[in-house]
């Protein structure tokens, strides 16, 4: 019964959630789709802006459990999206973030993640994936493995699509650039941030030059992208 109050998990601000987090990580391996979906959602919420919970999840091998849930999801975005967002949370802004960034690589998670960077995925998942890639790019040891999975051209494709859609409306009369609940300018910003980090590698810069990335950056200067 602990996986149902997903919305209530936003309100849990107290520490000492070790036992709850441990149970949630175990439940990620459940054969019940609904259980896994709700569990991933709760973990996503509990790791949002909570450094203590992020650290605990890392220590309890939550990175491995979340990646396994993504791998077992058979393309179900209702599982993959919250699991990816939880991974994005725990690979950034807490004392064990670098450990989480390395763990994703060490357990073979980069191919699993990069496989979803395609046009069939909806924008909420793509935004979460790009944010996770950006965090992984903070670790220089991940650059080679990200390049091996053709992440740079995939990111460039997402960036150009988001830029093209930034002037469109998801629904008639709706806000400009808002598609599937995601503002395209935010996707552009996080994509540029990921490419900026990856550009620290000479090999990655060579790949970017071949994609003619400079043309778009000159065409549309982007602020607050670091």
Automatic annotation (TrEMBL):
<dbReference type="InterPro" id="IPR000225">
    <property type="entry name" value="Armadillo"/>
</dbReference>
<protein>
    <submittedName>
        <fullName>Catenin beta-1</fullName>
    </submittedName>
</protein>
<dbReference type="GO" id="GO:0007155">
    <property type="term" value="P:cell adhesion"/>
</dbReference>
<dbReference type="InterPro" id="IPR011989">
    <property type="entry name" value="ARM-like"/>
</dbReference>
<feature type="repeat" description="ARM">
    <location>
        <begin position="61"/>
        <end position="99"/>
    </location>
</feature>
<dbReference type="InterPro" id="IPR013284">
    <property type="entry name" value="Beta-catenin"/>
</dbReference>
<dbReference type="Pfam" id="PF00514">
    <property type="entry name" value="Arm"/>
</dbReference>
<feature type="repeat" description="ARM">
    <location>
        <begin position="19"/>
        <end position="57"/>
    </location>
</feature>
<dbReference type="GO" id="GO:0045296">
    <property type="term" value="F:cadherin binding"/>
</dbReference>
<dbReference type="InterPro" id="IPR016024">
    <property type="entry name" value="ARM-type_fold"/>
</dbReference>
């Amino acid at each position: 019964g602990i996986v149902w109050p997903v919305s209530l998990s936003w309100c849990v601000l107290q520490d000492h959630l070790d036992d709850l987090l441990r149970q949630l990580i175990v439940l990620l391996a459940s054969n019940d789709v609904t259980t896994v979906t709700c569990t991933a959602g709760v973990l996503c919420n509990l790791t949002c802006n909570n450094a203590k919970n992020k650290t605990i999840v890392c220590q309890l091998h939550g990175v491995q459990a979340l990646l396994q849930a993504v791998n077992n999801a058979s393309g179900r975005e209702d599982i993959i999206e919250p699991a990816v967002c939880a991974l994005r949370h725990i690979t950034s802004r807490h004392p064990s973030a670098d450990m989480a960034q390395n763990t994703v690589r060490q357990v073979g998670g980069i191919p699993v993640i990069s496989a979803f960077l395609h046009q069939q995925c909806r924008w909420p998942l793509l935004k979460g994936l790009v944010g996770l890639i950006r965090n992984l790019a903070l670790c220089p040891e991940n650059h080679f493995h990200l390049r091996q999975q053709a992440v740079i051209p995939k990111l460039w494709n997402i960036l150009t699509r988001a830029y093209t859609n930034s002037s469109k409306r998801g629904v008639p009369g709706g806000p400009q650039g808002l598609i599937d609940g995601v503002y395209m300018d935010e996707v552009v910003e996080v994509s540029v941030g990921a490419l900026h980090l990856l550009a620290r590698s000479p090999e990655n810069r060579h790949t970017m030059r071949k994609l003619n990335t400079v043309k778009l950056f000159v065409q549309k200067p982007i602020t607050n992208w670091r």
